[in-house]
Amino acid sequence: MEELLRQAAFGNDPGAGRLLRAKAGSGPGRVRLLAGIVAGAEGRYATAATVFQQLMRGEDRMVAAHAAAAFAAHRRQLGGHGAALAFDGLAVTWATADLGKSGERDPDGLDAEGALVDGLLGLAADNLGVGRLGAARLLRAKAGRLLRADAPLRENPQVEAGPPLRAEDAPVSGPAEDERVETRRLLRAEGARGALAEAGAARPLQTEAAEGAPLSGLPEGGQLESARSPRVGAAEGAPAGEDGRTGADRLLRAKAGSAGWRGRVRAGWVAAEIELAAGNASAAVPSAEEAAEIAHERGAVRHGIKSDLVLAAALTGVGDSAGRERALDLVRNARMAAEKYEIRSLIWPAALIFADLVPANGQLYRSRADTVLHAVLLRADPGGRRLARESPWVPV
């Protein structure tokens, strides 16, 4: 069962686990985690939320960390970047505590090292979505170092450290009250502030609500015409060396090693989206190209579709005719693949991007996006639906 669910979540057969999700409820934590990931890809957010919330209350901290990061990603997909911050913070907390406890590495990054990278990249995407471009760059760079990527801190702005994340503050972007209560309980139990600082991910971020435009509806990051002032600073007591890395960076990198192909793909998405938000479309293309190359070489259909959409957005932003033609082909093929495998979380963003690229048929593809998004929201939990309604970037 686990292998089929892996193929659905990360491999070349996204439909493989569709009939197994119900049977996975009584399985071990990793099987249930995969079932939740598959459910989310299909746009069944309520099912996924139930699974992830159960796993976050479980004893396996590595699985709990992945569940928190995946739940945060689903919140972003529904426009809730602010609400996702607390859960990505929990992912970093739990993953950091679990580093080095097992010598086994998972081929798809379903281990503590992978969860740490997922959490850091999630925090980068969350900050990008609420307008903190500088914070997003810092967090993406930190994840890149854990991935052994050449991701130096090209800029190290002297930015103000925001106030600590308090249990009473999170999540803030309108999830249901039971979700607020559960988040507060988890934050109190785990002390997310201290663990985030220990991870060198800067002080935990204040989770006030803010507007941030997702990249044409794409899950993960955000695209903003302008960014608000970042509110993240370097961790206290961690002086940086000549390479810009703190002692905490080096310690975590030594413990984490390489987080695998999936982390590198997601890092490419976030890096590209950061550059698009900064108005540097040309700088976004290489990261998007690399992400697409890794995903397709791996045979990861879902990640390949998302990578092609990010690359298409970057190419379109460059503005030349050759890039636009290539972007059109990428989005056309990505949309068809998402439809074929019923990956609803990517069908509606792909349809919206295609509508922008083919204005003559724009209404047709916007109608398709509306239809799919309506079906997705019917299958979302109340907190998710509320986030989507409140988001100016989800066309509900």
Could you write a compact summary of the structure shown?
It contains 17 helices and no strands.
List keywords for this structure.
globular, mainly alpha, 17 helices, 396 residues, single chain
Helical/strand content category: mainly alpha
DSSP strand content: under 5%
The span between the termini is 36 Å
Strand tally is 0
What is the count of DSSP helices, taking H or I runs of 4+ residues? 17
Order of helices and strands: HHHHHHHHHHHHHHHHH
Characterize the overall form.
Answer: globular
How confident is the prediction overall: mean pLDDT? Answer: 78
Structural features, described:
Helix content is 62%, strand content 0%. 58% of the residues are buried. The chain is built from 17 helices and no strands. Residues 149-180, 182-245 and 248-258 have low confidence and may be disordered. It has helices at 2-10, 29-41, 45-56, 61-77, 81-98, 112-129, 133-146, 177-190, 192-198, 247-256, 261-277, 281-298, 301-318, 321-340, 344-357, 362-378, 382-390.
What's the layout of helices and strands?
Elements: H1 2-10, H2 29-41, H3 45-56, H4 61-77, H5 81-98, H6 112-129, H7 133-146, H8 177-190, H9 192-198, H10 247-256, H11 261-277, H12 281-298, H13 301-318, H14 321-340, H15 344-357, H16 362-378, H17 382-390
